[in-house]
Amino acid sequence: MSKYVFYYFDAKALGESSRLLMAYGGQEFEDRRHTDEEWPAIKPKMLFGTVPLLEIDGKQYAQSKAISRYLGRKYGLVGDTPEDALEIDQIVDFLVDFRLKAEETSPRLMPDAAVRERNYAAYSKNVFPDYLEKLNAIIVKNNGHLALGKLTWADFMLAGSFDYLRNLLRMPDLSTKYPAFQQVVDNVYSIPQVKSYADAAPYTEE
Ligand SMILES: N[C@@H](CCC(=O)N[C@@H](CS)C(=O)NCC(=O)O)C(=O)O
User: Fold this and answer.
1) Radius of gyration, CA atoms only, the chain
2) 145 close to ligand 1 (CB < 6 Angstrom)
3) Is the pLDDT of residue 1 over 90?
4) Is residue 205 domain-resident?
5) Which domain covers residue 52, as residue numbers?
């Protein structure tokens, strides 16, 4: 079996979807979680200077979406046709657009508090509700999934980043307001091998 090493911070955020997918596929991997303090020494060794990064038999592959899509393809979670794959890709890109917008209100990524709070005030009125409603409608239409009415790697993208998204949105009640989102998360985390991984994984807030 090939040797997989996965590099990310000790967080779920952009990395967890790939960890969950490897657990789903029964792929053993070394889960390298570094601290903020360790990062400056690690960054120059990463292909694009960022994580997540997956190393397969010593070869580095970067970009969270590309890694998760690769794992999805490997484990039969990309549908059957190019149009199926397109339906999955479009919703994943939509999710990423949402996350990038929400990150403009993040203390970590938007250190200027005035800009951050101005963004949050505006987006929580004019931007976030639209993303949430559209995503909610899509999940309801797909019976608790993001695409194709069944489990795909898109579900892992939402499940893995759900805690991060909820924190970015400052919506501790996200699951109550939008139970459909929680349904996607539960559908992924209730898969036995995913549950085993998650039960044993270090706890992180997001
Ligand atoms: N588009 C990239 C973004 C990667 C990214 O920005 N990762 C952050 C952590 S979530 C990072 O490496 N930050 C440290 C840095 O850029 O020095 C992906 O999806 O993998």
Assistant:
1) 17
2) no
3) no
4) no
5) 4-75+192-200
